Every structure is written in structure tokens, then in C-alpha cells.
Amino acid sequence: MEGIILKALSTRDKVSSEELAADNKVDHQEVVGAAKSLTAQGYIVADMETKPVWNISEEAKEIVEKGSPEYNLWKLLGDGDLPQSKVQEQFGKETTAVALANGMKSKLLKIDKSSGQPVLQRNAATASDEVRDLLQRIIGGGEANPKETEALKKRKLATLDNKKVFLYTKGPDYSVEVKAKAVGDLTREMLVTGAWKTTSFKEYNFSVPAEDIDGGQLHPLLKVRQEFREIFMELGFQEMDTQHWVESSFWNFDSLFIPQQHPARDLQDTFFISKPATSEVVQKELMAKVRAAHEAAFRTPWKEEEAKRNILRTHTTGSSAYTLFRLAQMSEKLPDGTLKFRPGRYYSIDRVFRNEEMDKTHLCEFHQIEGFVVGRNISLANMMHTFDKFFRRIGIERLRFKPTFNPYTEPSMEIFGFHTGLKKWIEVGNSGLFRPELLGPLGFDAGVSVMAWGISLERNTMIKYNISNIHELFGHRVNINFIKRSAIARF
Ligand code: PHE
């Protein structure tokens, strides 16, 4: 059908859908459908208009052919009368009823019931078949007045409908032949066969909004972690291996000179592992030195069973101790008893666990930003300078230090930063110089100092993203849209 429409327009400026349907003896709707697709492709332009058309019923068609029942009855009666029963025999009951109803209304017929038996009579001397004439007129394209239209509708003979008809003219992309549909993709075959030369391609539509890409997103914590990592790298720190969540009590506590009776080692604060409940401390020599240091300082027997207990690490400071241990192991012990080691800066950002009461700012697990610098002649002033540099990079320009106590550092300082957004001093970390009782057993001489610290990744991220409840940042209550939309952290 498409081809026929296009061909029709090659010799004419315009053609109507009705003409096309009539000339080709097809349903009007078929023409309209085919033309719609041509219009969409720009071959033709369609102008729609509504046209009143008569919908003629089967009954009306019969009237046109045979005359209306009332007129036929009038003719049958001639000059005489006929009992209704006789008429019914000839016309059938239904047609008789129709003839009578309409005939009496138009005063062609009447009914006489005086003899007890209904007798049908003419009521007009002359008559014409008005309904048939009207139907013939409208079928022939003539008009009907509103009264006539109403009467035809009431008698269910004909209704006037609005038909959508179209006038077609050539469109901007007119051609006599239907071209192959434009394709979206250039394929290998097209290149190999050279078909691309004659293929028409769909045009780019630059105004279509791009599809939402729903890929993975980095969690804000990971973004902030990356920022911190980069700062550490730029300051010359190297990353420690902290890829284990389960730690022996030995590395988490004992190596850090935390007494075995210390409350941090209670069930209330620490998650103990039941399977396997213990692990062997393989560094026997170190263990002996640690035992000696503990027993000299705390005056209670030091138990290996206690050191063997497995826990979910409560901090990553055990890894700092292990890193220092490895460093000392790899270094050369000079004849004067000092250690020839490479001074260095180390950091890690990894998960730790504490048996905490959970609230707005506490979770049972969080990430610790751990760091230490090992060298000779490291002073408290050096440490404060390092913190100043580091926190300046994350947007905290004013620092305050408060003396505190840690079993493994002396002196120890809590670090407070002035948060300009919140306009208050907030605790950002804990720090100190590792005690000689800790460094000695690890293999360092008394002239070596280590400044070390731990900072919460979550605290800093909450500040950056202006989050007041830690549950919005971590855990099952996190809104996935927050993760998707959160900007890359800006300091
Ligand atoms: N381990 C400490 C904590 O968990 C942080 C810290 C590390 C303090 C190193 C001093 C030195 O809070």
C-alpha cells in the first residue's frame, strides 16, 4: 500500500485517503495505516479533516430495496380494509407491528377495533414512501435536516458519524520508491561487503537525554580513604600490610605493653574468636622479651595462654608493632649495641572492631587511620609539626593537643582540630611516642623513637559529608542513593 500512495503522488499534488481506498478497492483504514508510517518517515504530509458520513443499517438497506413496511401496507390495503390477522399472515407479525407503528404516526394508516377484531384501514388517500425517499436521498449524497436525521437515528435506520479522512501531499523526504529503513549500527558485514556505501544511517540525536548509568559507586568512606592515602603518599609514607581482621592478643595487646589485666582485654570491650580460639605465637624470642618487660613492670605473672587468644583486632596498632619488629629484624645490630635501620614513615587505613554500645557516633566496627614515624631524635615538636601538615591537608588548620594516657605511649596526646563548619573543637585522633618498654623487646636501642597515632576514618568522613548519624554512613541503614550521589570528597 505504501508504494501505491507514493506512486499516486508522483502524478498528482495531492490525493485523499478516500480516493485511494476507492481506486484500489481497499479498506479506508488500510490506506490510513500505510500513510501513517510514510508520514512518520517524512515521505508524505497528511492533513486530517473530519467528514460526516452516514452509517446505514441493514434494515434501511432493505427499505431502499423493497419500500418501507408502512408504505407497503398502505399499498396492500388499497381501498378496502383488512383484518390485522390477515395482514400478519402476509407480512409477518414483526413487520406488521413496525408498519402499523410508523404508519399510524405518519397518519397513513389507522386501526378500527369497533367490531371486536382489529381491522386495518388507510388513513390517507394519497401517499408516498417518505422514509425510502429520505434514505435514497442521503445515500445519493443529499442532505437531511436535523429533524430527519433525528428520526432516522430514532428508528435505528441511519446515524451520522464523523469520519477522519486525510489529504496527502509530498513530504520533505518524498520519493516514489520506499527506501530501505535507516539503520542504527554499522556492522562488520557492511564494511566487508561495502554495503555501507549505499546504506542510509539514522542521524544522531544530540538532544536526547543520556541514559542513566547505574554502575557501581565508591562508598564515601572509600573516597575519603583514598584522599587520606594520597596525602600519606605525598608525605612519603608507605602502606602497612593490615589485611587480617583476626589478630592474636599477643600482637594486639602484649606486644604493645598492654597489661594482661587491662580492662580493654575484657569481654565487654573486645570480641574474642571461638574457632579457632587461639593461635601460636611463633616469635618465641620476642615473646620471652615481652614477657620479661611485662613481668618487670606489672609484677604479675605473664600468661602465654592469654597472649594466644584470638580476637577481632581492636586497633591496627598491632600492625605498627609488627612492622617495627620486621624492620628491626631486617636491620643490622652494630657492635656498640645500636641498630642500623632505615628511618621510615608508615600508615594504614583498615577496619577495627570493638564491643561497643552502638549509638549515633559509635559502631562495633570502624576504620582506623594508623600511622607512625620511626627515627632518631624524634621529639614531641616533630610530631606536632607532622600533625599540623597532615591535618592542614584535610582542611583542619588549627590543632590543639591534650595530654592523655595510653599504655603504649609516653607522652600521649589527644589531637583536637577546630572544625570551621561546626565552629568547635573536635577530637580527631590519639597519639604519642611509643614507650621504650615496647620498642626494646622489638629490637630497638634506647636512642630510637617512634611517634604514632590513630585517627577514625568515619569521624572525618562524617565531618566532610556533614553526617550527624554514623548509621547513615555505615551499615544496613545506609541509603543507596546517598552512596550514588555523594560527591568525591573535597577538602
Ligand atoms: N591505638 C589507639 C586507638 O585505638 C590510637 C593510637 C595509636 C594512639 C598509636 C597512640 C599511638 O585509639
UniProtKB/TrEMBL annotation:
Ranges for domain Aminoacyl-transfer RNA synthetases class-II family profile: 223-463
Cited InterPro entries: aa-tRNA-synth_II, aa-tRNA-synth_II/BPL/LPL, Phe-tRNA-synth_IIc_asu, Phenylalanyl-tRNA_Synthase, PheRS_DBD1, PheRS_DBD3
GO cellular component, one term: phenylalanine-tRNA ligase complex
EC number: 6.1.1.20
PROSITE patterns in the cross-refs: AA_TRNA_LIGASE_II
UniProt keyword Ubl conjugation present: no
Location(s), subcellular: Cytoplasm
Family stated for the protein in its record: Belongs to the class-II aminoacyl-tRNA synthetase family. Phe-tRNA synthetase alpha subunit type 2 subfamily.
Protein's UniProt name: phenylalanine--tRNA ligase
